[in-house]
Amino acid sequence: MIYKKSFYALILSIIFSAFILPAYSEDNSGITSLRQTSKAFAEVAKKVSPSVVFIQVESVKKNIQTTPFQSPFSDDFFKRFFGESLPDFPQQPQMPADKNVVAQGSGFVFSSKKSLLTDRSYILTNNHVVEGADKIHITFKDGTEFNAKVVGTDPKSDIAVLEIKDSSHPALSLGSSSRLEVGEWVIAVGNPFGLSHTLTVGVVSAKGRTGLGINDYEDFIQTDAAINPGNSGGPLLNLDGDVVGINTAIFSRSGGYMGVGFAIPVDLVSNIAKQLIDKGEVTRGYLGIVIQSLTPELSKSFDLDVSKGILISQIAEESPAAKAGLKVGDLIVRFQDKDVAEVGDFRNQVAQTSPGTTASLAIIRNGKRILVNVKIGHLDKTPATAKAFTQTADELGVVVQTITPELAKQFNVKTGEGVVVSEVKRGSLAAMAGIRSGVVILQVNRKAINSAAQFKQAIDKSRSDKQVLLLIRDQNMSRYVVLSWR
After folding, report:
1. Is 345 in the active site?
2. Can you give the residue ranges of every domain in the chain?
3. How far apart, in whole angstroms, are the C-alpha atoms of residue 359 and residue 131?
4. Which of 98, 281, 346, 358 is most buried, judged by most C-beta within 10 A?
């Protein structure tokens, strides 16, 4: 009997060792792995937090209109009954027209210089954080504070570089956004809602996001790491603590985080930041063409046997593209040594090519593949004729294009009837009025327009009034919109 009990005990011991202990070991291994991941996040926080800054911006908004109180007895209606001899009541003085505005954001040190004659650090942030600033005040995690000055800004990419007289805080190392893969862990550090040096984690949800209408030049990293108001300008980092992007915008219906955030890739940032420090401005390449993505319908219409490429729908006179012999209807399939598939990516490639560079384009024309060499022009030094089909109205915050047959087909509008809005600046008058890309502007101040040049002339005439009346058509609905920048 004792023998049997010992035998059963041995069997139970073997079963426990074979099944229970491995399960416990596996559970323990999972917890260990989570602890290691947690430690990795903590190490990044310790490494980068001393270099992240809280930015406070002060600006004075001028021409804030207020209506003074006026006695109703001064109205003609009352004078008609009480006579002209009735004295007017004194008016209250008009309130001051200027208003102090305070905003906030994030930034980080990316370069420092220390020598006998130089003691400075450069800080990267978003242009929209410091745009229009009269005073910029930054605070480090250790509590040290500095007044910063703007070295240069680039509104088209929403990048700004600041400078402070200090080199005691370490600069963050810049990684490579091109090597970043969808699904990788990323970490966002910033100051959401003024909560200094907040860290959130997530993954890369997507890369190469373009056409969002946030910036003129877009190539966003999409992430689900929580980004909220105040995070703008802060770094997006990999697990090594290297910067892979600058947190810039969120998609939200509530104004807060909804799981979709966007960061400017560091490869684009570093190129622009260097130009801002060296020259105070950004130089971009220019071809002088209107382009659109190749859809299956367009591919069939042009009798193309390819599914990727960028279709040329218009070419400006005397532009680099015209001089190189490019034609409307050409399909660009390769630029330099890279295949072309997305409109936004192609625009970025051209813009980042130095003016004067001879670039090689592979195009398909009439079913044949042709190599064309184009001398890249300077975007800000193009002739007026080269810009006639695209115009920008900074007061309104829109870019419009003359409607070509290709654009008419793309947006389902009529050629020669209005201009199509191709870009809308975030936070602009147009954006707040509900105008978006694809909307057609039919009239300006009750006069019909049918080209970008006519649109520009009409807007120029409205500048003295600081107000414009637009008739717009969005899909099948038309409405009037009054935009005022008084």
Report:
1. no
2. 49-60+98-164, 185-279, 285-381, 388-484
3. 34
4. 346
